[in-house]
Amino acid sequence: MTTDVDTFFDRFAMLEISDDSLDGVLSASPADIDILFLWGRDCPNCEVAKRTILVAPSRFVWPQVRWLHGSVYAEPALGTRFGLHGIPAFIVFGRGRKLGRISPFPGAEPFIAAINQQLDKFTA
């Protein structure tokens, strides 16, 4: 049986990256902010984040933001690169430069507020 979470990446468009492709993807980004969602298959906390986003996906879409994703189980170098101790983790980049990390997933409202705060810096 397929669930909404199983089809998450089809329903909520995110560009899949690898450790090898990340730097090139970021340097060519047309967005002010890139959010890298680091996750793992069968990770319960990752499933909670996906379900939360799928409740109201339009709340997680900003014109100046591009979403990326990478599985740290399939690409362990991503976990090592960002010093992860748990997932999900959301690495936030501003015009190719790492701005910070959101981990664990704090829920919809705090997540949206944190991204809006970063976006305000680019429009100020």
Descriptive labels:
five-stranded mixed sheet, 124 residues, alpha/beta
- The unreliable regions are none
Instruction: State the distance separating the first and last CA atoms.
Output: 47 Å
Overall 3D geometry?
Answer: globular
Beta strand %: 15-25%
Topology order in helix (H) and strand (E) letters: HEHEHEHEEH
Lateral strand order in the biggest sheet: 1-3-2-4-5
Total of helices: 5
Q: pLDDT average, as an integer?
A: 93
Q: Approximately how much helix is present in the residues?
A: 25-40%
- Radius of gyration over all CA atoms, rounded: 14 Å
| Biggest sheet statistics | 5 strands, mixed
Kindly name the structural category. alpha/beta
Annotation, overall tally of beta strands = 5
Provide the fold topology.
Blueprint: H1 8-11, E1 15-16, H2 19-27, E2 33-39, H3 44-55, E3 65-71, H4 76-81, E4 89-94, E5 97-102, H5 108-123
Written description of the protein model:
The chain has 124 residues and is of the alpha/beta class. 38% of the residues lie in helices and 23% in strands. It has five helices and five strands, in the order H-E-H-E-H-E-H-E-E-H. The chain has a five-stranded mixed sheet. Strand 4 (89-94) and strand 5 form a beta hairpin. The chain is globular and about 40 Å long. The protein starts with 7 loop residues before the first helix and ends with a helix.
